[in-house]
Every structure is written in structure tokens, then in C-alpha cells.
Amino acid sequence: MGLPKYVLNWDELTAPLKKELLKLIDDAIKDKYPEINTDNIEADLEAILELLPSDHYEDLKRKIDAFIYKNIVGIQKIEGVYLDIPPLVKSTQHDFKYDKDVYLTGLHVDQNGWKKEDRWRLVINKVHLMKNVATKEVGEHKFFNTFYKVNANTPISFILDNNSGNSREIMLDLEYIEGDEITINPPSTDLPPSGSTILFLDVSGSMWGLCDQMSNLMVTFLQNLSESDTVSVCFVSGIDDKHTKGTYFYEKHDFSNKDKAMEFLGISSNIPKKTGGTYDIVTVKAVLDYNLNKFTNYVFCTDQLLESAPRSDFKTKLISFFTEKQNVYSIPTEPSFIYYWDDVFNNTGLFKPIKI
User: Fold this and answer.
1) Which of these, 231, 218, 296, 224, lies nearest to 261 by C-alpha position?
2) Strand-pair category, 127-134 with 231-237
3) What distance in Å separates the CA atoms of residue 260 and residue 47, rounded to the nearest whole number?
4) Does pTM surpass 0.90?
5) Residue 33 pLDDT exceeds 50
């Protein structure tokens, strides 16, 4: 004869506790929202604590305490910016960035040349804190009723959508509390999915010391692909001031599967080394010049910035070239470049930095 057993259902224990806690909190604040203050919070917290069955749950009180009495310590600062907007139908962006964590407290926007069609946005990490805000004939101030924390080195992007094409001057004052901490945003560590893949490697003079390292990272990336995925490898470098198709160095190798591509990249002598030129950003531009639009994944590795391209509409052309079903990544050549490619990705949806 076996011993009698009783199966514990933890919901039977936690449900009453939950019910009592919610009732206590509800009774404390019901019909009192306009008058809520911290005068009687201590009594309410003590009543909640009495319901908690063990010392383990006292941590809940400490967390509630920390939330209610959170004290943001720092220096109140204001950064002003003057923007000269040209008479063009386009978006103009200015990024605020700080080397310490900050808490946003307000934004003041003033301008001349008002037109009713124009709008502005405030964007952080692709989150629109303010969206489709109409410009005003007089200056306006936006208050943050709850301070918004922004991690160190994170772009705070003010974007004017100049739909009218009218020229103007804009004066911005960003108000914030500068904190004492530095919170680092970790780089993306996810590898792109399987699919046909093309790799672009800058082989100009400034990259010589990095080519072997970058090719090894590309080999690591290729291991994530399926056996049937085709792979192409492009070596690119500028020549003097030349930047049009056929005038700069471009060498493309096609492979039927990832293993052959990995074997090729694993041999250092297969990677050419060129002197480079003024526009080594042709490493990226080659995708446009040679109309390489049939791949699932695009991975670019260069130490040049997109802004170094000879054409001012370079980014616009890249955005229109790629489709939503294509994945466009960058391999930063050094840690500081992670922030740059993060900015590009946040603004364009392209060149997501990957760390392998």
C-alpha cells in the first residue's frame, strides 16, 4: 500500500495573495488619482508587506520603494542648435549625442519661414517620441512629464520633414539632465539568416592590416548558411579619384556553396591588396554600379563612411535599391565604428552591424 500523496497547486497559494495585493493597492488609489502623493505611501507599503508570506517576497517592497522614490541625480543642461534649412523638399536631420547617460526633460523648437505642410519628429532607437508634429508660427516648448532616459552615445534625432520646400532657420534647445553613468548599448550579435549571399571587402591600402581578420570574420559568418546557399565574394578598391563603373578595382568570385567560399577566403594570398584612392566607398557603390540585386544577404566591410561618396544622393539610391526582403549588414572594422553603423541602420534600415 503506497503512501497517500497530495499534489500542490501553487496557483491555490499565489492566487489569494495576488487578489489581496491588488485589492489593497486598488483601495489605496481608487478615486484618488488627482490627489495621489507620497504622504501615505509608507503605510500602504507596510500593509502590503504584512501580506507577503516570507522574507523572499520582501524584495518586492524594495523594488516598489525604488520605483516610487527614484531620485535622478545630475546636472540640468541645455544644448542649443541652429539649423539652416535649404529650399528643398527633403528631410533634414540633426543628432544630439552625449558620452554619458542623460534624461530628457524638454525640447524647444523655434523657426522662421513657417508653412503649414511641414512636420518634425524626435526619434531615439527607432522609437518616435514625437511624430508628425506640425511646425508653429511661434516657438513651442515640449515638456517631458516623465524624464526619458537615453543611454550614452545614443543618437537623439530631430528630423524636419520640409514638405513645402521652403527655406528657413530652425533654433533648437534640448533640455536634459546629465547623469553619472555610462550605459553601453551592446552591438547586435545575431547572424543573418541563410540564403544567397554576397560579401564586399575593401582591399585598399588602409585596410591591408585588417583584410585577413575581416576575411576570417566573413568565414565565421558563412558557417551560418545552408549547404545549398550560393556565395559571391567581391574585392573592391578605389583608384585615384575614379569612382565610376569600370574605373576602380573590382573583382568578383562566385561559388556554388559556402564551403568553397570559405576555403577561398581562408587562403591569404587570394585576397588582393590595392593602394586605394579617394573614394574607397566604391566598396559599397559597386552594388549599384554592377546592379547586384539578386541576393538575399549583403555584407559590407570597409573603413570608409557612406558620407565620403562623391554623390550627395548616395544614401537615397541605396535605400531605393534594396527591397524589404533583402538583408543588408556591415562588419565594423573597429569597435568605434559600431556606433556609426548603428546610426546608419537606425536612419536607413540598412547596414545593420554584426559582431561575429
Assistant:
1) 231
2) unpaired
3) 69
4) no
5) no
